[in-house]
Design brief:
Two copies of one chain form a homodimer. Chain A has 343 residues and is α/β, with parallel strands linked by helices. Chain A has 14 helices and twelve strands. In chain A, the strands form three sheets. In chain A, strands 2-1-3-4-5-11 form a six-stranded parallel sheet, with helices on both faces. A four-stranded parallel sheet of chain A has the order 7-6-8-9, sandwiched between helices. In chain A, strands 10-12 form a two-stranded antiparallel sheet. In chain A, α1 packs across α2, α6 crosses α14 and α9 packs parallel to α10. The longest helix of chain A has 16 residues. The relative contact order of chain A is 0.11. β2 of chain A pairs antiparallel with β2 of chain B. The structure holds a DNA duplex (30 and 30 nucleotides).
Amino acid sequence: MTMSNTGGRRKPPTIHDVAREAGVSRGTVSRVLNGGHYVSPSAAEAVNAAIRRTGYVVNRHARSLITGRSDSVGFLLTEPQERFFEDPNFNVLLRGCTQALAAHDIPLLLMIAGTQAERRRIVRYITAGHVDGVLLVSSHSGDPVAEELRAAGVPLVACGKPIGLGSKVSYVAADDRDGARDLVRHLLGLGRRRVGVVTGPLDTPGGVERLAGYKEVLAEAGLGIDERLIVSGDYSRASGEAGAERLLAGAPDMDAVFVASDLMAQGVLAALHRAGRRVPQDVAVGGFDDSQAAVAASPGLTTIRQPWDRISSEMVRVLLAQVGGEDPATVILPTELVKRESA
Amino acid sequence: MTMSNTGGRRKPPTIHDVAREAGVSRGTVSRVLNGGHYVSPSAAEAVNAAIRRTGYVVNRHARSLITGRSDSVGFLLTEPQERFFEDPNFNVLLRGCTQALAAHDIPLLLMIAGTQAERRRIVRYITAGHVDGVLLVSSHSGDPVAEELRAAGVPLVACGKPIGLGSKVSYVAADDRDGARDLVRHLLGLGRRRVGVVTGPLDTPGGVERLAGYKEVLAEAGLGIDERLIVSGDYSRASGEAGAERLLAGAPDMDAVFVASDLMAQGVLAALHRAGRRVPQDVAVGGFDDSQAAVAASPGLTTIRQPWDRISSEMVRVLLAQVGGEDPATVILPTELVKRESA
DNA sequence: TTCTCTACTGTGAACGCTCACAGAGCAGCG
DNA sequence: CGCTGCTCTGTGAGCGTTCACAGTAGAGAA
């Protein structure tokens, strides 16, 4: 073993060493490395053997210097950090994206924009070309970061439909409206007639669409819309708790509630419990996401599953396609009703 | 504005352009960029003005190619993904590390090693020199990844003391034993005498140390160790729930319990509630971490705060020092008792 | 045979930066 | 006055790769 690496780091082999070892030229090694077209089988074999023998790994900096690509992508989170700390959905998404990118040998750079200064720094970093594209997680509308990146021509894929951005930005989302319809229909199917809703923030597509689904189903069932049965939250647990209290105050006869996120639903369960309402006997509760929060809740939360694994892999697919020169695209994925004890 | 960037991406200015614009040589621009030593004030000013005018940003690939550094670090998670999805501590740590690194303009590459294949891929990636160092989160002992990286001479800082690795590896940890002592003393101070414990995994330093602290305080209070009051979990919520059930079965007279993580404590609260025990009246409960889980629990969880912000900033500090050639170091940070309703 | 076409290979020139070196200018000192 | 030492500046080389180009060899067609 000539490459024994005990302790200090020594100079790694270059493409030149491999070429010499294989008895070919740099060009041939490079061709083998990049797809192997126009290389004779014997040369390819010799090169691959030399690579194994020397332990050669391509120097990405040298490659990037000439190709202009960085072969890395950014994962940009512009949510307030409290949400990131609280909501396990981010972790699932993050895991899914690293995994999908790993299949292409592309590292994920994590960028969290909390303060205004951080936003500026990150935008500068990205527009400088240090990443090939960006996976964006930022539900609120009018996010200046997204607009700046789009304007700078940086390939971009959002998680969830960005409100207020031109149609030229790619996004991948679950079918929020359809999911909400499924859940509310389920509640009505249980015989409930006074169904409340705790929406997400109404400047997010998730907030708007899930509320729309709720209203559609009530209408199709011939039930009117009672404004006292509608309150909105911000996806946080605490806002769910507060929302449930307002609902109970305004509509004490509520017998079911659709909550636009599992985390808020946890808060709703806590508030109902404190108010002495039994779940599901007195009030049936349905959530949205099917996150860890849904399993951890007691009773287990009936909810709408968002297909996070597919969302993340589609985000990566669409982003890489765009980096490769294809046009922006949007993907809507189906949801699924998951029944547990709460409804 | 010569650099208007409407739509497509154009060729960014190089150090050469800046030099020409400022009327100096490449070397001078480079010196300004790297600390500004041996540069006259007038030249520095001219260069900075030229940088602003051209919108120049250094090409990191070109720099890395020659310096041999990548100016990036990896954040490596070798926990099972379920823990990553469930435990908000990871998010806090991740946020803290990105933030601390951002101050040095160093991006964080997120690496999650779930499967064996992923581990191999990631180790190859790291040992190839694609990152300057690694922030390691992996509590279990005998982690082969850590050992491989250490052997390859990659700068490494672990979060929590790695068991079974030579003393040559840096780590940053909270004072687990002391924290456990504080909490158990608090429980005894409330007059409780039958104090149970749900430990962390006993192949992790956190698991071992927190249990040791528990035993120390019982001994100093003249209370014997009752094995029926000791069960161990794996930091997951579910294991807390199971642990509490075993405790109740083995020691029905238990009047307090120290749980080695907040997440497990949530499970303990659920189990106690199901068993009809009131918290804190019948059983006082104390956790460890002071994570979101502690606040979200009902009743609010009395717990030991781990100083995550300092842990992450120290990890980054120690890692960068090591990248700069300094020797490995270990840092132990003090914890703090946070009182809430559960005890 | 000769010419064309294809498959394959090697070579020089970048990519944008840092580093080492040499040299200029100037001050202080013997 | 010359020497030393300091601050400051420009220049050439080279980091490890890809890319464009030129060139060779062999197969098949004219």
